[in-house]
Amino acid sequence: MKLRQKRKQNNILLSVLQGNEGASLVLVAIIAIIIISGVVVLRISTSSLLASADKQQNQDQAYMIAVSLGDSIDKGIKNGKITDPHALNGFDDSTNTQYAIPNSTVTVKVEDYPSGVDTFTVITVHSEVADAEYEYRLTYLKSGPDYVRQY
Fold it and tell me: Per the CB 3.0–4.6 Å rule, which of 24, 25, 29, 62 could disulfide with 134?
């Protein structure tokens, strides 16, 4: 008797499992969609992060070019090697930076701003790398023949 009951339960269980074949396929399809969606999201976020890293690298390079030239100009003025910063107005060192960093430019602009008795000279070093730009400004107060850096 027990054997018949056990077979009957197994047959009922088997028929229930066979009746749920469609549900199993739906479950497998849902799991596959979740996995594929995860892969697509990871691919998109990876591409976005790489593009952001490239842009950040361009910004860092533009910053370094401008600051490097600006610091060299400041050092030249402090040491007396550059006595008239206006001689640098329109200076373009892009041909030299192209060797180190392709698609880059760096230029210098010098402007005077009178303020009462004093005259301030502002040197702007403008650099570009691909789509990134940076401007480095140095401000000097003309004191007689000398230029004193204002921070």
Answer: 62
Counting DSSP H helices and E strands in the chain, the numbers are 3, 4
Q: Could you tell me the strand order of the sheet in which 104-115 lies?
A: 104-115, 118-129, 132-143, 146-150
Tell me 83's DSSP state. Answer: S
So where are the chain's domains?
2-150
Q: How far is it, in rounded angstroms, from Cα 136 to Cα 122?
A: 10
**Hey, what amino acid is at 106?**
V
**pLDDT confidence of residue 1:** 61
Distance of CA 49 to the CA centre of its chain: 10
The pTM for the full model equals 0.69
Q: What is the C-alpha to C-alpha distance for residues 151 and 69, in angstroms, rounded to an integer?
A: 17
Span 60-67, average pLDDT: 95
Q: Which residues of 116-129 are buried (b: 16+ CB within 10 A; e: fewer)?
A: eeeeebebbbbbbb
111 within 8 A of 126, measured Cβ to Cβ: no
Are the C-beta atoms of 20 and 28 separated by less than 8 Å? no
Confidence grade of residue 18 (pLDDT, cut at 50, 70, 90): low
